[in-house]
Amino acid sequence: MKHDFVVLSEEAGERLDRVVTAHCPDLSRTRVQELIEAALILLDGRAAKGSHRVRGGEHVTVEVRPRPPMRAEAESIPLDILYEDEDVVAVNKPAGMIVHAGAGNPRGTLVNALLGRGQTLSQGGDVLRPGIVHRLDKDTSGIILVAKNDAAHAKLGEAFRQRTVKKTYIALVEGLLKEDGGRIEFAIGRDPKRRVRMTARRTAVLADAREARTDWRVLARIDTTTLVEVQLHTGRTHQIRVHFSALHHPVVGDTLYGAAPQMVAGKLTMPALGRNFLHAAKLGFAHPRGGAWIDLRAPLPHALGAFLYELAIAAGDDARRIDAILTNYL
């Protein structure tokens, strides 16, 4: 398929990738960037960068070719293994790592890293997601459990569906929560206006909305933020982030759901966190072979701990209080 158009005079100064996306609404911006990198989008017959600023009047040719089929590929990437036996492996995933390959993200995934260890993974699911029975968002760190064989995959998948796996997170949210604990049960569905987001409603008014439950309790209040322990009873996309945003207490660093790009503590502007303050700290499950209960814990990443201490110091709080909380918790 080919698209041909001339850049309009009023589009002068715009980035090439934005202009192409506007003229080709059937292509996402990610797909446009892929085509630019493959030299399949030409500006006056020549390849150009997506960031190139157009002048107006140029002729643009877009050749859309099918993506080559993606597959998980072994990569040598270090992993923090929390637990491993012949059936399962549990990894402390860092923020910034995608769990499995997707459009525009074929490399650097958790699956690729596991395959790079010579890891045998279950094949019962998608070819891009061998072994994957649950996921964490790219900017969420912490425990993810992976199945090594099909029998373990089936047992763990059923455990997640039946909600017998205990998933506990630690999050820092903007604002001071008034209560010391609570439950959020807003239904969650895709945001019809911004498809990269989910949205929550008190009733299931969205066509694709699904019930969701998040329980929380306060661990500490630090300046204008609240550190909370969160237990998920359902596993909807972006659930914790969406639910706290719906309460007008977005997760710190989560600009997609309304968090400030930078926080102010006391009179100081904090350095940008560069990720969401959300960490899958604990996970408990019945082992798929024999049913023995296993509890796993992942320490809070250094970047998150350091951010808490800096926040407390800037606000005139006692950093030793934060240290005690984290020591007792994790």
Account of the 3D structure:
The structure is a single chain. The chain is an alpha+beta fold. The protein folds into three domains: 2-63, RNA-binding S4 domain (Structural Genomics Hypothetical 15.5 Kd Protein In mrcA-pckA Intergenic Region, Chain A); 81-161, Pseudouridine synthase (2-Layer Sandwich), CATH 3.30.2350; 166-329, Pseudouridine synthase, CATH 3.30.2350.10. Helices cover 21% and strands 27% of the residues. The chain is built from seven helices and 17 strands. Strands 5, 6, 7, 8, 9, 12, 13, 16 and 17 form a nine-stranded mixed β-sheet that branches. The chain has a four-stranded antiparallel β-sheet with strand order 1-4-2-3. A two-stranded antiparallel ribbon has the order 10-11. The radius of gyration is 23 Å and the shape is globular. The N and C termini lie far apart (55 Å).
Task: Return Rg in Å.
Answer: 23 Å
Distance between the termini: 55 Å
Task: Report the principal-axis shape.
Answer: globular
What CATH calls the topology of the largest domain is Pseudouridine synthase
Give a concise summary:
With 330 residues, this protein is of the alpha+beta class.
Layout of helices and strands:
Elements: E1 2-6, H1 16-23, H2 29-37, E2 41-43, E3 46-47, E4 59-63, E5 81-84, E6 88-93, H3 110-116, E7 141-147, H4 150-161, E8 166-174, E9 181-184, E10 187-190, E11 198-201, E12 214-222, E13 225-232, H5 239-246, E14 264-265, E15 268-269, E16 278-286, E17 293-297, H6 302-314, H7 319-329
